[in-house]
Amino acid sequence: MICALFLATMTSLAQNVNVQLHYDLGHNLSDNLSGRPSVTTTVELFKPDQWGSTFLFTDLDYYHDGVAGAYWEFAREFNVSSNKRWAAHVEYDGGLTSSKETQYSTRFQHAFLAGPAWNWASSDFNKTFSLQALYKYYFKGQNPWNRPFNSFQATAVWGIHFADRRFSFSGFIDCWYDNSVSGNWITIAEPQFWFNLWALLGREGFNLSLGTEVEISNNFVFDDLGRNNRFYAIPTIAAKWSF
């Protein structure tokens, strides 16, 4: 599943919630993705505390007549070192998506993850980086209670603000073992680039950013026929408001 853990897209620790709107160009790139929803909204929350941090996000995909799918993650980290670099990580993922052209639907079925995490941030939080090595237990097939699957997932997350925070480059990459796909590995990455208008214009409280995200997928994105055995690089046009 998409492990966008601790995305460093917030402009400061005080602004730890954001809402994103993405116009997805996938349906224009391939006939196999003609049924892919065009619009996605994302709500992210990141909250550090004395014990560690909490992260959650929800994606909603839309057709013109309503919601096409939903996906959410919840992750909690507990600090295990005095410098807060090392943490114990636990997470849940799940969701549902569909294709309007074929009425094909698939569930992102229950996934539970746990393992160590290493986190780093510069003193001004303009640069952040995180690595996780996770045991992954998730369900496969139309009868998930009959098909639990043990796996391993590696995740890297980064965030960089530069030019006096006028611009941000952030994202993540997940790679996990799955013996049902070609090559036995699934990879998903979502780098984002943002123009932070609040910094460009120098207006306090005008927390709007404009930019793009590219969903880079190998064996993850499902096409209209329910196949997920191809490589895609799917860009979006995006806006974000940080709170």
Secondary structure: elements and pairs:
Layout (H helix, E strand, L loop, with lengths): L16 E8 L1 H4 L9 E10 L3 E12 L2 E14 L6 E13 L6 E17 L5 E13 L8 E15 L4 E11 L7 E5 L2 E5 H5 L6 E11 L12 E12 L1
Antiparallel strand pairs: 1-2, 1-13, 2-3, 3-4, 4-5, 5-6, 6-7, 7-8, 8-9, 9-10, 9-11, 10-12, 11-12, 12-13
User: Which class do the helix and strand fractions yield?
Assistant: mainly beta
Shape: globular
Largest beta-sheet characterization: 13 strands, antiparallel
Strand content: over 45%
Question: What is the number of helical segments per DSSP (H or I, 4+ residues)?
Answer: 2
Spatial separation of the terminal alpha carbons: 26 Å
**Sequence of secondary-structure elements:** EHEEEEEEEEEEHEE
Could you give the count of β-strands?
Answer: 13
Q: Kindly provide the radius of gyration, computed on alpha-carbon positions and rounded to a whole number of angstroms.
A: 18 Å
What value does the average pLDDT take?
Answer: 86
Low-pLDDT ranges? 1-15
What is the percent of helical residues?
under 10%
